[in-house]
Design a protein that fits this description.
heterodimer, A: mainly beta, B: about 120 residues, mainly beta, 11 strands, about 0% helix, about 50% strand
Chain lengths: ~110, ~120
């Protein structure tokens, strides 16, 4: 069955550093991958989408890579700020199918 | 626009009780979804709907029922609440099926405890 893993359950980094979150998957060949941000007590909010034929996508301080050979996506936040502290979810999808979500990584950016 | 609105925010049920979680969206989206989120487990799809009058089961539908009489509303019904249904429930919507250009819009969630 499909399995999605996100690096550690929690990640602590110092303000100003680059945070790198991983999303690994098995038994699945997604056509695209999305990243969402979730704050405590709130629903997830869409951040970025990357397709299987794209290596990298950027949006402001965010960068996503997608390696279909390694079955892995990396999510980077450069120049991290305490306001970036949240849980980040990856979601895999295929055309005509519903999303499959990873368990999430809770990021804490320490001042 | 309000987006996706869920009520109630919190609820405590006794075993065997029933309740309806309400969800409404004002974006005229065709597709609506119900997820549950348990610690360390990610979001699991319970039911989804591709339009008014059409619903289908997701990954974990047992113990739940849905209806979709209008484009805007997609209530989730728990008939005989069990402790295993203690979770945070999220309603979401999208304009079309979750293809490459689609993203999900989520409500703020309902935290349900069954004791």
């Amino acid at each position: 069955s499909q399995k999605i893993e996100q690096n550690s359950e929690a990640l602590n980094i110092q303000e100003g550093k680059t945070a790198t979150l991983t999303c690994n998957y098995t038994n699945y060949s997604p056509a695209y991958l999305q990243w969402y941000r979730q704050d405590p007590g709130r629903g997830p909010v869409f951040l970025l989408l990357i397709r299987e034929n794209e290596k990298e996508k950027r949006k402001e301080r965010l960068k996503v890579t997608f390696d279909t050979t390694l079955k892995q996506s990396l999510f980077h936040i450069t120049a991290s700020q305490p306001a970036d502290s949240a849980t980040y979810l990856c979601a895999l999808g295929n055309y005509g199918q519903n999303f499959v979500f990873g368990p999430g990584t809770r990021l804490s950016v320490l001042p | 626009n309000a987006g996706v609105t869920q009520t109630p925010k919190f609820r405590i049920l006794k075993i065997g009780q029933s309740m309806t979680l309400q969800c409404t969206q004002d974006m005229n989206h065709n597709y609506m979804y119900w997820y549950r989120q348990d610690p360390g487990m990610g979001l699991k799809l319970i039911y989804y709907s591709v339009g008014a009058g059409i619903t289908d089961k997701g990954e974990v539908p047992n113990g739940y029922n849905v209806s979709r009489s209008t484009t805007e509303d997609f209530p989730l019904r728990l008939e005989l609440a069990a402790p295993s249904q203690t979770s945070v429930y999220f309603c979401a919507s999208s304009y079309a099926q979750t293809g490459a250009n689609e993203k999900l819009f989520f409500g703020s969630g309902t935290q349900l405890s069954v004791l």
